[in-house]
Amino acid sequence: MPKNSKVTQREHSSEHVTESVADLLALEEPVDYKQSVLNVAGEAGKQKAADEELDAEDRPAWNSKLQYILAQIGFSVGLGNIWRFPYLCQKNGGGAYLVPYLVLLIIIGIPLFFLELAVGQRIRRGSIGVWHYVCPRLGGIGFSSCIVCLFVGLYYNVIIGWSIFYFFKSFQYPLPWSECPVVRNGTVTGKYGPVGFAVISVVEAECEKSSATTYFWYREALDISNSISESGGLNWKMTLCLLVAWSIVGMAVVKGIQSSGKVMYFSSLFPYVVLACFLVRGLLLRGAIDGILHMFTPK
């Protein structure tokens, strides 16, 4: 034992030793086992959780609840509501299709949608971070959902490119898809020989066999080749429209919700205005009631 220790000093001193072992131990500093080496892993986990919580707080948020609600409304209504749902309804039994659709919507669709929104607001992470937060082994689900979103983006951006193409073409009068194009040919006229040329206007044969809208879609918009073995050339008009569509998506992703949230006031409400216009226009067409009854009649 060192000479300068408390016990050695008491042995060589003339004072009467009255302290017991318990008194000596009481003079020592208490050991905090929570700060020992055995609890290093737990402290590291708490620090990691605190860092993740700090990152979640730094995640951009909506400026107001109204923007968030409009974003969910815009997410719920898209191009599929205009053409996909009526097509599926008519193809799969009309009114009979609506019965399982409504049942699954109430039992599965709406609860899962609400659960997704609630978890997203509570954890405030992306699709990858949410599943990793729930369980690290489920992180692959988040990556898979991102890949699915990429495929959906490829699909929908092509449709947006078509819409942009038709939007620019709609500034013409008359509309290019309202009537078939006319081919002008110079032919020789005369009884005994070529005495002149007369211009004869002939409607495009392919358009006459189908319709003006079908001809414009396949020959002007898509510019398809005659067969699958022919690669054809680059449709530069549609390529530019597709580039514009991806540029819009890229700017929305780069700017984030701080700027795109203000766009929600227009982009979320405008589809409902378009649907209302289509509904009014469709009801004014001849035989509209018969068409609606035919689509919703159970088969």
UniProtKB/TrEMBL annotation:
Protein species of origin: Camelus dromedarius
GO biological process: alanine transport; glycine transport; L-leucine transport; proline transport; sodium ion transmembrane transport
Any one GO MF annotation of this record: metal ion binding
Residues passing through the membrane, by range: 68-86, 98-119, 140-168, 236-257, 269-289
Protein name: Transporter
GO CC entries: membrane; synaptic vesicle
Listed PANTHER family: SODIUM-DEPENDENT NEUTRAL AMINO ACID TRANSPORTER SLC6A17, SODIUM/CHLORIDE DEPENDENT TRANSPORTER
Membrane topology summary: Multi-pass membrane protein
